[in-house]
Structures are given as structure tokens and as C-alpha cells.
Amino acid sequence: MLNLRQLHDQLDDFEEQQAKRQNRRTAQRDRAGALLDVCHEHWREVRDAVGTAQPRRLVAKMREPPAATHAAPERPSPITVVATDGSQIYPDRHVEPPFFLLNVSQVGFQYGTTEEALLDSTPSLHFREQLAARFDAPLDTIPAELVSALRDELELSQLLDVATTARVSGRPLLALADGTLIRWMIRGMDNEALEEDLIARYTEHLEGFREANLALASYVSMPASTEVVNLLRFVGGDLDAAAPSISVDAADTPQLDGLLDRHVLATILKPGERSAVFGSASHIQGEYPTGTDIAFFYLRVPGPSEGELGRVEVPRWVAEDSALLDRVHATILQECRKGEGYPLALSEAHERAVVRRAEREAFFRIMERRLRDTGLDPTGSGKRRSKQRPRA
Questions:
Q1: By the 8 A CB rule, do 29 and 265 touch?
Q2: CA quadruple 351, 329, 307, 148: dihedral positive or negative?
Q3: Higher pLDDT, 243 or 43
Q4: Cα–Cα distance between 92 and 359 in angstroms, integer?
Q5: First CA to last CA across the chain, in angstroms?
Q6: Is the confidence at residue 342, as pLDDT, over 60?
Q7: Is residue 205 within 8 Å of residue 292, measured between CB atoms?
Q8: Residue 379, phi then psi, degrees to nearest 5
Q9: Model pLDDT, residue 388
Q10: Strands (E), 289-345
Q11: The 3-state secondary structure of 120-174, one letter per residue
């Protein structure tokens, strides 16, 4: 049981700390705004200085002045918008043998026509022996990072399939993914061969979009990225690398630690506008084929309190095509209007993909029954059996 009365003093302390944090955040934003102005004016010089210094932190690559803003273009109509999303049932360490389930949705809308929407999902079962054969490596355990990486790979593969199937000759199309296109989670699995295989398979699908000339983008809600902030920290002399000669005096000013890109760019973007396009400095992209490395921009989407800033990621070949970039900007903005602050296609994809608690328990019951029917005896821990027992 939760004793709420005992939280009274802790809540008072929380409120006090949040008030102090808000005051510091205001001072940080003021400094970040001044640094952004300097960086905007001298952006080529700063870009060259970053390239020379090669700071250890991820610093956004500039393709244009960083304080540039762009109004929303008109979304073409008719247009095809497709999306996928995935969910999973992770391996349960209280159940032997280990297995997991991926469920990936496929959604397609033909806007400006009377054609019916595509709303579907496909489950797939995975287990240790199957994965070991695929990756030609022993897998004593199935780490959560591997499950997440395989889910993302399957989402992108299914997105390519549905985009190819739903495509109408002469009609613009946007394929929309949820979350990042950068494989952040793969590094650190302590299995270099497995990591390289996962990256290669993922980027193969990225190449598929480029070869088919299909516009691809992803949307990150409430992003926690700091690549633009690190660029400003470099200008301000806060990073370990040498700052450029135009560095702004940091005396008696707050450091920008804890500040996010969206906190800074929210001060310059009006509803519907997007920021400049930046390139990501993620080292993992060194293994991406040329042209499929990821660029990004921020977009102020509609919602309460002037809306939030979403991060939109695109492969570089999309970023370098102004017509495709305008299509991404206009379509995601319209999707967020339809979805009340979040892209409607992604919201529908999520609803089709999510595995609810009752479905999860039904899945485990089916697995246990099938194993017993074949003469196998699945083992579960005492803790799992305890959770399954009804309470008096």
C-alpha cells in the first residue's frame, strides 16, 4: 500500500527544487539564445572549427545557418501515407525455454481519395535456437537490446513492403516510422559480429527505400537529443575540445548541461515551422551506406501551450531533395493536426501493434499448452506461478 500522508514533506521539497530548476532553465535558455545568434552569424567558421577539433560529444553538423526557420508548405493531395509500429513480448526469465514475440502493424492511408485504409498487423515468434542459426553464434541469453533491434528491423522491412504495395503511380507517398532511424541501441551488446549483422540488415532496408525512390521519415515525440545544444556548448567553450575564435565569454553564465535541443529551438519556431536541417554526428552512422546517413530537423506541431517540438529524421538523400523535404514537412504537420499533436498514421499503427496484458497472458497460456502437448515440460519459477495464482 502507498501511504500518501508520508509523502507530504517530500512533495514540498520536490516543489522547491522544481522552482529552482525553472529559474536556472530560463537563464540557460537566455545564454543558449545568445550562442545560437553567434553560431548563426558565423556558421561556416564554426562548422570548420568543429571539424578540426572533433569533440568527443555528439555535435550537430550544420548544413545551413542553425537559427534558420522554414514555414510549412502545402501538403500535396492526393497523397499516400504509410506507417508501421511494433511491440513485443520480451523473454521472461522466469520461463524456460526462452522465446519472445514481435507484433508489427501496417497502416496505409490514401488521402484525397475514397480508397479504403489499410489496417493490419503481423505477429512473429522468435526463440533461441532459431536466432543462433540465423546469426551463426551461440546465444545463451536473449538480451533486450537484441529484441528491440529485431523489432526495429522488422518495422522498417514491413514499412518498405507496405510502401511498395500501397504506392500509386504518379501519386506522392511518405513512409513514416516511429522513433529514431539511428541504431543507438545496437552498440554495447558485447557481440561485434552480431552488431555488424544487425546494422547491415537495417541499412539494407534503408537502401531499399532509396532505390525505389520512396520518401522515408521518422518522428520522435518529446525528443531528448542534445546535438544542437552541444554545438552551442562548443561555441561557448563548454566542451573539452578547443572552441573557435568567435567563442562567447562564459563568465558568470550558466552551463548548458541538462538543456535539450527542443528547449532551445522552441524559442525561435512558430507553430507549423521547422528548423534548419542538421546532420547527426553519431559514430554508428559510419557503417551506413553513403547517402543513407541520417539528418534531422525540429518541427513545432499543434497541441496545448503552442504545441511540442518533435524531431523528424530523414536519410540524407531525402534531406538533399528540397521537394521531398517539403513533402515530409507538410505531411507530418498535417498528420499531427489530424492526430491532435501526434501523427495520426503512427497513432493508428500503435493501436494495431500494441499487445495488451490479457493478450500477453493468453499467449503464454497457448505456449505452455503447446509445449506440454508435444511432450515438453516448460518450467516456470515460483515467482511466476505465485503471480498467476488468484488471490483470495
A1: no
A2: positive
A3: 43
A4: 15
A5: 17
A6: yes
A7: no
A8: -105, 140
A9: 52
A10: 294-300, 309-315
A11: EEEEEEEEHHHHHHHHCCCCCCCCHHHHHHHHHHHHHHHHHHHHHHHCCCCCCEE
Quote the DSSP letter at residue 248. Answer: P
State pLDDT tens for residues 180-233. 999 987 776 777 888 888 899 999 999 999 999 999 999 999 999 999 999 999
State what percent of residues in the chain have pLDDT above 70. Answer: 90
Write the pLDDT tens digit of every residue in 133-162.
Answer: 777 665 667 788 888 999 999 999 999 999
| Entry pTM | 0.89
Other CB atoms within 10 Å distance of the CB of residue 219 = 25
Place of cell 538523400: 317
Dihedral pair phi/psi, residue 108, rounded to 5°:
-145, 130
- Angle of helix 192-211 relative to helix 128-135, nearest 10 degrees, comes to 80
- What is the helix (H) or strand (E) element at residue 11, kind and residue range? helix 8-41
Residue 232 amino acid letter: L
Q: What angle do CA 178, 183, 187 make, to 5 degrees?
A: 145
Neighbours of 167 (CB within 10 A): 18
Q: Which cell goes with 66? A: 542553425
Length of the chain: 392
**282 Cα distance to chain centroid:** 14
Residue for grid cell 529551438: 265
